[in-house]
Amino acid sequence: MPSSDPGAARERTDLAWQRSGFSYLAIAGVVLGVAAHHDAPWLLGVSAVLVAVAAAVWRHGRTAYQRDDVRPHPRELGLLTAVPALVAVVAAVVVVVIS
């Protein structure tokens, strides 16, 4: 049965949101590993926040693209840009503090 969307843009976009969520989850795992190896319990909070962000991104991707009136989400895309930048800054600070 042919799809009404020959390029499958909706599915690709949904998969992109899922990949973003899994990326945050992977970063949370790395932060958790650093917390364990460097005896830095405060990083557990950072890891928990990243898990929450991963869940929110995944959930948004699952719900936003199941509707028929799919539109761009500039606010969410802005957050997806800002959060990794913030994570990078926090990671740089952690490297400097722990070293």
Give the strand tally: 0
Number of helices: 3
Q: Strand share of the residues?
A: under 5%
Low-confidence stretches: none
Residues in helix, %: over 70%
- Helix/strand-derived class? mainly alpha
- From the alpha carbons, calculate the radius of gyration and give it in angstroms: 17 Å
Distance between the termini: 58 Å
Q: Which word captures the global form?
A: elongated
Largest sheet: none
Number of structurally distinct domains: 1
Query: Overall mean pLDDT score?
Result: 81
Q: Could you state the order of secondary-structure elements as H and E? A: HHH
How would you characterize the overall build of this protein?
The chain is mainly alpha-helical and about 100 residues long. The protein has one domain (about 10-99). The chain is built from three helices and no strands. Helix 1 packs antiparallel against helix 2 (about 45-65). The longest helix is centred in the N-terminal third of the chain and has 29 residues, at about 10-35. The N and C termini lie far apart (about 60 Å). The mean pLDDT is about 80.
Identify the notable features of this structure and list them briefly.
single chain, 99 residues, mainly alpha, 77% helix, 0% strand, elongated
Short description:
The chain is built from 3 helices and no strands. By secondary structure, it is mostly helical. It has one domain.
